[in-house]
Amino acid sequence: MKTYEVFLKKEGKDPFSHAGSVDAPDDELALTYAREAYGRRSEGDQMWVVRRSDIIIADETELKMADRKHKHNDGQLLAELRRTAPSGES
Amino acid sequence: MVPTEEARELVLAFADDELCVGQNHSWWIAVGPFLEEDLAFTSIAQDELGHARALYSLLSDDIDHLAYSRTPPEYRSAHIAEFLCHDWSWALVRHVLHDIGEQIRWSAITDSSWKELAHTAQRALAEEHFHVQHGLSLMRRLLSNEDGRRRLEPVILELAPYGREYFVDPGHGLVDEGVLTMSMADQEQEWVKQVSGLFDEFDIPVDLNVEIPAFGRSGVRSKDFDLLHDEMTAVIRIDPKAQW
Fold first, then answer.
1. How far is the C-alpha of B133 from the C-alpha of B100, rounded, in Å?
2. A9 phi and psi, to 5 degrees?
3. Alpha helices per DSSP H over chain A
4. Which of A85, B45, B84, B85 has the smallest number of Cβ neighbours within 10 A?
5. Which residue of B has its CA nearest to A20?
6. Does A53 share its domain with A15?
7. Mutation site for A-interface testing, chosen from B129, B137, B144 by largest number of A Cβ within 10 Å
């Protein structure tokens, strides 16, 4: 059995979002199972089913390190930074 | 149009097949071979019960009476639909034989002169495509595997000839009246072609011409019917006014 990730999209502007995963012996049955598990009540108009092994997975530690104050680029934070760090450090 | 007695027999038999198969499939709720298959199989069970409901409602306003309260000889189900199949290989083989037949049977009434029947068939046929696809994918997958084939082959050989009972003709006027656009004999031939084709792929020497002792359409019930009927009427016997 292989694991597949299932994504659904409703009509309109909302993007595809992760619905869940299924285990299946092959791609054809993965589609069938994904439809029955996540789409049988018309939860989506479009469905992507992706082999989990085909997903390129990023390093979690690096991702956590990426969260810095100066990346939150909205006006309020900038204003706050200007007030508390006049030298420009963050 | 006012349907003839033959047309009503055709629909009653179809509805009874769907009721029995839907009830039988639902036995697998929570005990399917794995979670995804459990969900898929029992979702098909719901669809089959929905088909039975739609067909009964063409015959009567009291569909609960038709579904649950007739005497055994008044049912018209084919024996293959009644078999309990409490072994996964039996359940899967019956599912495939039934749904190949069901797809052909709906196709033969999508342009029926009985307009409500045609409408029901058009809706059902869209679902039926997925049922057949599910059954065939899993069947081919398991027959390609030594263990799967060892378990399935004897069941296929024994059960397959029973599928022909789905095509017992309730009368000869149905094509002339336009109720059917394909005669029962032609439907049967198409079913034989598709079923033989499938098992030929795997060199399984299925013989569909074996005489089978099944006379469900004439009111004779199979050995499994009483148990099945007891189970499906458990709620209505406790509370005849139950709504669900």
1. 10
2. -135, 135
3. 27-38, 60-65, 75-84
4. A85
5. B36
6. yes
7. B137
Task: Return the pLDDT at A89.
Answer: 54
Q: Which residues in chain B are closer than 8 Å to A3, comparing Cβ atoms?
A: none
Sorted by where each starts, the structural domains of chain B and their CATH numbers stand as 5-164+172-205+213-238 (1.20.1260.10)
**Chain B residues lying within 8 Å of A26, measured CB to CB:** 137, 141
Quote the pLDDT of residue A47: 97
Yes or no, beta carbons of B36 and A35 under 8 Å apart = no
Same domain, yes or no: A82 and A48: no
Whether residues A66 and A40 fall in one domain:
no
Position B51: which residue type?
Answer: H
- The residue in chain A having the minimum alpha-carbon distance to the alpha carbon of residue B136 is A29
What is the SS3 assignment for A69? helix
Q: Which amino acid would we find at residue B65?
A: H
For residue A40 the two structure tokens come to 């049988």
The residue segments making up the domain with residue A4 are 1-57
